[in-house]
Amino acid sequence: MISILFVCTGNSCRSPLAEALARREWESMGSGLEIASAGLHALPGAPASELAREVAREDGLDLAEHRARALDEDLLESVDLVLTMAAGHKAEILRRHPESRGKVFTLAEFSGHAELGDVVDPWGGEIEDYRKSLETLRRHLRAASGNLRSYLK
Questions:
Q1: DSSP 8-state secondary structure symbol assigned to residue 144
Q2: What is the 3-state secondary structure (H, E, C) of 22-84?
Q3: How far, in Å, CA of 39 to CA of 43, rounded?
Q4: Of the residues 13, 14, 53, 69, which is catalytic?
Q5: CATH number for position 82
Q6: Quick one: which H or E segment has residue 128?
Q7: 39, 128, 135, 146: most buried by Cβ count inside 10 Å?
């Protein structure tokens, strides 16, 4: 079993979308994956943002039951791989927890498509901003599936 944690700032937009999308995109890899999400500055128990829920529904995903959780040392230690939405998230995790070096990557690094860049935070934007973030996530996750397969071996 490989446990993967997607991390963003508040665990209300990008990382919940990444979690839900990864579950669907990577389901063909079997039951050897455990996928979750958290935020560096999350308000524990908060729902996904309204627009994140809306773009998720448009894409056949469901964030209705999502509740934010904050990244803490125990959670970080319990997972095998941490994929952050932006370089700043990775830097903050490594500053707080330098011992986690080697298992924390930006999604762009892990996907091998740095040209796609960070997943831009849509918080406070229009629905089109959320759609763009979801599409960036989809492109990264599809590209990352090859790297993930090597992790599963």
A1: H
A2: HHHHCHHHCCCEEEEEEECCCCCCCECCHHHHHHHHHCCCCCCCCECCECCHHHHHHCCEEEE
A3: 8
A4: 14
A5: 3.40.50.2300
A6: helix 127-152
A7: 39
Percent of the chain with pLDDT over 70: 97
Catalytic status, residue 121: yes
Rounded Cα distance, 132 and 138, in Å: 10
pTM of the full structure: 0.96
Tokens of 149: 């397969």
d(CA 52, CA 62): 10
Encoded tokens for 153 = 């071996």
User: Is 13 annotated as catalytic?
Assistant: no
Q: Which of 121, 131, 138, 142 is catalytic?
A: 121
For this structure, is 142 an active site residue? no
Which of 109, 78, 86 has its CA nearest to residue 10?
86
Q: How does pLDDT run across 45-59, given as a tens digit for each residue?
A: 999 999 999 999 999
Q: Domain count of the chain?
A: 1
